[in-house]
Amino acid sequence: MRISPTGFNKKIRVNGIKLSTELVQINLLNASSPEISRSLFFRHLSQNQINAPFILLTGMEEKIQVSCCVEADDINRIKKVVAEEPNLKENVEFISSVGALSMFPHRSNLKLMGLAFYLLGGAHLPMYGMATSISSLTFITDYSRLDEAVSTFLKYVDLPPNHAPFRQEVHMIQKKR
Amino acid sequence: METIAVYWEPRPKTYGFNEVTGLSLLNIAIRPGKMSQWGLWLMELADLDIGFHLILAKYSAHQKLRLYILLEKFWADSVLSSIDKRSDLESKNFVHLTSPVELVSFHGPHFGDRYGIADSAFKALDDQEVPILITVCSGAAVYIVFPEKKLHEARPVLAEAFEVP
Q1: For chain A, which terminal residue's Cβ has fewer other Cβ atoms within 10 angstroms, N or C?
Q2: Residue B8 phi, psi (nearest 5)
Q3: pTM value?
């Protein structure tokens, strides 16, 4: 693998890498009334008390208007809801067993994001979605390849000496009583 | 070990809304096989110290990755010029700029762990027909980008849907 000397000549310092539990990605395709299918989809998630910790929404003109991730444990409930809703069942697709890798902080600098594109593309690791939040850059790839993704990144990013990539251990669930 | 906490609120609380206007939304369609090359070009852009407000990448259709970069409007020309110098002719045709655009972002307690936050935001905005360009909900943060002059329509709607301190 070749790194352009002008684009990358020293390791990028990050303070941490976090890996998610197993997730399922849901893609909501554009229907004849995209706003209605979007509203319907999120209303059903809410009514069924299903959290989507990662949501990407783009313009109505795109074939896939929403990509979001839910916990793998929730997928059967979602499939049931979708199957029973005529306005959704033709417009939803699932990518099973995905995981999120978050690196922080991104410092609002394009270098970490460019590196992610460069490395994931070079290693042929799938990238189903990517976004920044307040301080972290998160991307979605195959759950079974998260460790491979970490190893790939560790060649080009520096972690503090006392830090190792960690998996989420505390799992918060909100339930209505 | 399981710990149960009981908490109820009529409207989700936020820590307040952050609004930014005068932004540009760069939209790049990336063909399969071009991801690594775009990674290099983006790393070179980073050398110009161009900051961003938000990054989103997702498939717009199967095999069509689309990257959105939200940045200050005054950076837009430099970025386009830099891409123009570096990228090949074919890739340039897949770069599109929407400008100006407006951003509202907010976060709240355990937003990333709770259901219904996105539904509250989309329902409020869709009911009032406020158009959305892109949205990211990641961790406890929500980012919504609007076309020019739509933020003032979104502001009261979101303030109604969420409790602002």
Answers
A1: C
A2: -140, 140
A3: 0.92
